[in-house]
């Protein structure tokens, strides 16, 4: 809309914003660029309605419990559920499909949550990594906006190699998606110092 009116604005353009909002498209693009992500299975609502057993078998054949189920096009933790077994996976998919006809099922992992801000257009720069310190099972809408049981630790206490990798992957993801202006890259960091990009 702003581009149609020839008005300047801050942040990513239409295509980048649309791709980054869509979790499935984001994963496809970042996978092509070699950015590490947790294993995942995209699931269309029609696939699930036509053959739920096949969907469950596909998820359980590729992933281990716990799994996280997310609508493909929502943010702020809306519609996200944690599944510890097949019954919970079924309920989680039902919840996700209330918000979108496409869902993504991700491998759950024990990890810290690290964030890196990215700034710039051609000359891309990153900030120090920060950590979302939380005392809840997972960082859903209530934890973010209702109970607000989180603190930010900046800079995050991570080894230098993790610091550099987080910045490197954040720049790569930002560039692969055609980012401009500013963005934030969220990572999972395991106790083995493995980084997985969660979203941008």
What's the mean pLDDT score? 90
Strand proportion, as a percent range, falls in: 25-35%
In CATH, what is the class of the largest domain? Alpha Beta
**Rounded radius of gyration (Å):** 17 Å
Structurally, the number of domains stands at: 2
Taking pLDDT < 50 over at least 5 consecutive residues as the criterion, the unreliable ranges are none
| Number of helical regions | 7
Shape descriptor reads globular
N-to-C span: 22 Å
Any descriptors?
200 residues, alpha+beta, Dna Ligase, domain 1, 2 domains, four-stranded antiparallel beta sheet, globular, ATP-binding
Verbal overview:
With about 200 residues, the protein is of the alpha+beta class. It contains seven helices and ten strands. It has helices at about 15-20, 25-30, 45-50, 50-60, 85-95, 140-145, 160-175; strands spanning about 40-45, 65-70, 80-85, 100-105, 110-120, 125, 130-135, 150-155, 180-190, 195-200. Strands 5, 6, 7, 8, 9 and 10 form a six-stranded antiparallel β-sheet that branches. The radius of gyration is 17 Å and the shape is globular.
Question: How would the blueprint of this fold be written?
Answer:
Layout: H1 14-21, H2 23-32, E1 40-44, H3 45-50, H4 52-62, E2 67-71, E3 81-83, H5 86-96, E4 102-107, E5 112-120, E6 125-126, E7 130-134, H6 141-146, E8 150-153, H7 160-176, E9 181-189, E10 195-199
Antiparallel strand pairs: 1-4, 2-3, 2-4, 5-6, 5-7, 5-9, 7-8, 9-10
């Amino acid at each position: 809309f702003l581009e149609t009116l020839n008005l300047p604005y801050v942040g990513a353009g239409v295509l980048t914003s649309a791709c980054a909002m869509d979790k499935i498209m984001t994963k496809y693009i970042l996978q092509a660029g070699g950015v590490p992500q947790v294993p995942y299975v995209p699931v269309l609502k029609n696939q699930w309605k036509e053959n739920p057993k096949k969907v469950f078998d596909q998820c359980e054949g590729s992933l281990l419990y716990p799994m996280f189920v997310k609508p493909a096009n929502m943010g702020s933790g809306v519609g996200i559920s944690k599944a510890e077994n097949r019954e919970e996976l079924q309920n989680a998919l039902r919840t996700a499909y209330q918000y979108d006809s496409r869902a993504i099922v991700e491998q759950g992992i024990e990890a810290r949550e690290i964030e890196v801000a990215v700034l710039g257009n051609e000359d891309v720069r990153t900030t120090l990594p920060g950590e979302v310190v939380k005392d809840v099972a997972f960082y859903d809408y209530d934890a973010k906006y209702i109970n607000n049981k989180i603190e930010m630790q900046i800079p995050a206490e991570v080894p230098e190699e993790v610091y550099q990798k987080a910045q490197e992957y954040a720049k790569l993801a930002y560039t692969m998606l055609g980012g401009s202006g500013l963005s934030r890259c969220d990572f999972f960091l395991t106790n083995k110092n493995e980084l997985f990009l969660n979203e941008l």
